[in-house]
Design goal:
five-stranded antiparallel β-sheet, single chain, 3 helices
């Protein structure tokens, strides 16, 4: 049989290799420990020569069995001895796959946004670099003929007042002006330190201006008939940068149309 021709033996081996494997396997299968028997020593001179030849013969037989078995195993990968499983071929085993370690999910990062106020009332805008937000404080306010008192906070809520003019002159007051003044108890008022607005036509209208030591605003102007009255509602607030040297204010109201009263609204 040509070595390259196909045969019915083991795949991957030529015909010659397959016959050799079969022959060696058959021969190895016939050799067991029962096949080894000691030879008959020659008479007479054997004792004188010792047991060396017998030991050499036994060693040669064992070596032959080992050589045949090794050749069969190298070609077939199987142990020719009955009931003995073939040892795994080194280098052919596939290592078990490594367990995949979970990759922690990283939440997507979002661009930084301005911080929100704890009360949820909107965004807190930090002051510009190098500046600090002014500290709000309370300023005492005196108003009316009886010097009633209230307070305003710098940069805080406004106070609303009602000013009333009653014409008791016995005749119509023509072109009567109703004037509000706010004077500071020490210090100088700047534009923006005091804000005054009057309620008219369904809305608030800013009026007046600071003039150094005080604030003046014309709330209304017009004729007022004899015995008639008109009431004006206005509000006053303080800027956040209100001068630290001013501790109290006086709010006054007067009119050339008659007598005046001034009181807090509500």
């Amino acid at each position: 049989m040509n070595e390259s021709e196909p045969h019915d033996g083991r795949p991957g081996l030529t015909g010659t290799e397959d016959l050799l494997v079969r022959a060696l396997a058959a021969r190895a299968g016939q050799i067991t420990h029962h096949s080894l028997r000691p030879g008959t020593p020659p008479a007479g001179a054997w004792a004188a020569r010792g047991r060396g030849p017998l030991v050499l013969a036994l060693a040669a037989s064992v070596a032959g069995v080992a050589l045949v078995g090794g050749a069969v195993m190298s070609l077939t990968g199987k142990d020719p001895r009955p009931g003995v499983a073939a040892a795994p071929s080194p280098g052919m085993s596939t290592p078990p796959p490594l367990p995949s370690s979970p990759v922690p999910s990283t939440p997507p990062t979002s661009p930084s946004a301005p911080a929100s106020s704890p009360s949820g009332g909107g965004t807190v805008v930090p002051p510009p670099d190098g500046e600090t937000a002014p500290v709000s404080r309370t300023v005492k306010v005196l108003y009316g003929p009886q010097n009633a008192t209230t307070t305003l906070r710098t940069g805080g809520a406004v106070r609303m007042f009602d000013a009333t003019v009653t014409n008791i002159q016995g005749e119509t007051a023509d072109d009567a002006a109703d004037i509000l003044t706010v004077t500071a108890g020490g210090g100088t008022l700047r534009p923006g330190d005091i804000q005054v607005s009057v309620y008219e036509a369904g809305g608030w209208k800013p009026v007046g201006r600071a003039d150094g030591t005080g604030y003046t605003a014309e709330l209304a102007r017009g004729s007022l008939a004899e015995g008639a009255e008109r009431t004006l509602r206005f509000r006053v607030g303080l800027g956040s940068a209100f001068p630290a040297g001013i501790g109290d204010l006086r709010v006054s109201f007067f009119s050339d149309g008659g007598s005046e009263t001034l009181e807090l609204s509500g």
